[in-house]
Amino acid sequence: MKETTSKIGLPKSFQLHDLKPDEFITYYFEKEKEIEDELLLSGAVKFHGVQIESIDVFQNIVNSIATKFLSYIDGNSPRTKLTGNVYTSTEYDKTQRITMHNELSYSAKWPGKLFFSCIQPAESGGETLLADSREILSLMDNDLVKEVESKGVMYIRNLHGGKGMGPSWQDTFETESKDQLEEYCKQYNIEYEWKEDNGLRLRQKSKGIVGHRTSGEKVWFNQIDQFHPYQLGEDLYEAMKAIFPTPEDFPSYVTFGNGDVISEELVSEILRVTQKATIAPAWNKNELLIVDNELASHGRNSYTGNRTVLVSMCE
Ligand SMILES: [Fe+2]
């Protein structure tokens, strides 16, 4: 893909020299202030030359340098929970590119930081794509920004009860209990509606543009393009329109917060701007990437071969 360089220079690289996990943890705490400042400036930092050979080592490192881990409950991408706080980054079809998103930005609660490491790089492709959310906001059409700010965004999801297209509600919410799921929805102001076939429709309102939790900087923070099936390409989108009675029955769909339609032209504009701000830094082994989830969105390039990228999320 075509690479453009972010104005802000994300991610900032820290070249280390084959540090053992314990040495890295010591280094991290010695430099913590500098690293945090850089993360706030760049939106993402990447450490090269850290011995991360296994899931356990990755878990040990993130457990040491981060606290308040979040689970992936309410997530919309297939992934496997490996150990306590570690997930595979995604198991979505490797021939497809995953569009840019800030993790769980449609949800009432999202992580502040994401930790990634690549245990096995793909044969080709498979980069974790990054884009600066401040840059996306500044490049986005002004009228669209105003509309998102004033109306917010409504995310609609249809989750099946075991068989069907996309993820099930059981996997999404890591539970088999409808009561528990309803409790969660009430707690986070998610409207829910059970269907006759044991499927579930969710409506979730969100701001779409937020102020960063520490700096207050405004950032583009939504998944409009990822939720709108227009991003799947003309053919698939047309096929879906023929299958589902209304757009609200699509596995995922999105409108403005007041129910106004977000046109295909606007989704196209969002995809264009986001693409312009996206960079594709290659993965090597023994790297740790920390992403400020509000300052930077991420995605994944399609790839060939086997690829294992681990992820952990914290508040
Ligand atoms: Fe993600």
Share of residues in strands: 25-35%
Heterogens: fe (ii) ion
Q: DSSP helix count?
A: 10
* Superfamily (CATH H level) name of the largest domain: Clavaminate synthase-like
Distance between the termini: 32 Å
Largest sheet: 8 strands, mixed
- The rounded Rg comes to 19 Å
What CATH calls the topology of the largest domain is Double-stranded beta-helix
Q: What is the ordering of alpha helices and beta strands?
A: EHHEHEEEEEEEHHEHHEEEEHHEHEEEEE
- Flag low-confidence runs: 1-7
Please bin the fraction of helical residues. Answer: 25-40%
Shape: globular
Number of DSSP strand runs: 20
Count of separate structural domains: 2
Summarize model confidence as the mean pLDDT.
Answer: 91
Task: Give the CATH architecture of the largest domain.
Answer: 4-Layer Sandwich
Structural class: alpha+beta
**CATH class descriptor name of the largest domain:** Alpha Beta
Describe the structure.
The chain has 315 residues and is of the alpha+beta class. It folds into 2 domains: 12-135 and 280-314, Double-stranded beta-helix (4-Layer Sandwich), CATH 3.60.130.10; 141-273, Clavaminate synthase-like (Double-stranded beta-helix, 4-Layer Sandwich), CATH 3.60.130. It is built from 10 helices and 20 strands. Strands 1, 2, 3, 4, 5, 7, 17 and 20 form an 8-stranded mixed beta sheet that branches. The chain has a 4-stranded antiparallel beta sheet with strand order 6-18-9-16. α1 runs parallel beside α3.
